[in-house]
Amino acid sequence: MLGVLLFAIFFALVFLNIPIAVALGLSSLIGLHMADFSFLMFPSIIYTSIGKFALLAIPFFILAGIIMEYAGISQRLIRFASVCVGHMEGGLISVVVVVSCFFAAISGSGPATVAALGSILIPAMAEAGYDKAMATSLMSAAGAIGIVIPPSIAFVVYASISDVSIGALFSGGVIPGVLLGLAYIGAAMYSSRNDKNIVRQPKASAKEKWLAFKDAFWGLMTPVIILGGIYGGIFTPTEAAGVAVVYGLFVGVFVYREIKFRDLWRLFVDAAVSSGIVMFIVAGASVFAWLLTTTHIAGDISSALLGFGINKTMMLLMINVIFLIAGCFLDANSAFYILIPIMMPIVAAFHIDPVHFGVFVTVNMAIGLITPPVGINLYVGCNIAQISVVDVCKKIAPFVIAGILALLLITFVPWLSLFLPQYLR
Questions:
Q1: 72 by DSSP, 3-state: which?
Q2: Would you call 277 exposed, middle or buried from its count of C-beta atoms within 10 A (0-12, 13-18, 19+)?
Q3: Which end of the chain has the lower number of beta carbons within 10 A, N or C?
Q4: Are 111 and 188 in contact (CB under 8 A)?
Q5: The domain containing residue 398 runs over which residues?
Q6: Does residue 233 form part of some domain?
Q7: 107 Cβ partners below 8 Å, 6+ apart?
Q8: pTM of the full predicted structure?
Q9: pLDDT for 72-101, tens place per residue?
Q10: Which residues contact 158 (CB under 8 A, 6 or more apart)?
Q11: pLDDT digit string, tens, across residues 182-217
């Protein structure tokens, strides 16, 4: 009964448009009272949950992403991708996805990727004759790859809950992230197949490509330093986040000279606000998850699901459906804290590799970033493009379908998620 009331209160608050962090906190406080726990446990649980070294990577990666945006790296990556593939059929489509993957390897956040790149790429696609709503849908979908391509804030949160190696999750997300990008390129090509207004860009000369590469070199080196340092055993993922901040400041201040010392205050404030939002969600969700575990709600739900007596294939499909539905209403961090404690006994019972599980449920949440009614990336993209959400929702269906097809492949072919972690072990 407590579990039903806990979820009912939480979703009632969400549907009343209460911020997710507040909804999680309020429902958790009510749950503590209903379960006869002292309210004094609330701050204690929060401190214990967020006072983890691994979670320190979250504000650092957010800060690194904002620094890279201020440093002008996004514009240089876009120019380099444009001169390489912009002249091909559907060239700008490829540019959007390729640059999103590169920027995802810096920021670790889907909405941040859309915000950083959308203001440049959406107008560029509209100017080239692409339908503006389709361009916004593509940018929103490509930006969602930000939580799959490492470094990923969602992976850091999942690792802190499940005690799985962050490095293994980061390497496990590379191939699925690329596969998701290819699926979105195919969806965009299909959507624009009969559009006669599209104009190809002129082919760049070898000199132009070389100059664009030189200009983007420092930006291209960012994921190499972050991921190479982690997989080379030079530093931990949390230390890598700190290195990314220092490297970004060096590039922005001394190499590109786009960041002035007077900009640092605004830059740090932006990072603090973004980090605060994420950490408030983590704090509220951690208490909610503690309640689910302590009151045996999570165990009871797990036992009920295992009691259906279905095979592994059906269970994997059921897990995907649960996370796809959750993605329609929740961000990845909240969904993980609520659902992972329920799912881990099922993962163990069906001998599903926890790295593989972490990757495919994160892909679920990436699809959720472009799925109404929440679809955070959609709202960010619409705000940038100055277009209604209704218009974009009419064009988002091919991308959701393409994402689900890629998800099924990632779910039922574990090799896609496990090859690199096993190879780099």
A1: coil
A2: middle
A3: N
A4: no
A5: 10-424
A6: yes
A7: 61, 62, 64, 65, 68, 69, 113, 116, 146
A8: 0.86
A9: 877 887 888 888 877 777 677 888 888 888
A10: 164, 169, 336, 340, 358, 361, 362
A11: 999 999 888 887 777 777 777 778 888 898 888 888
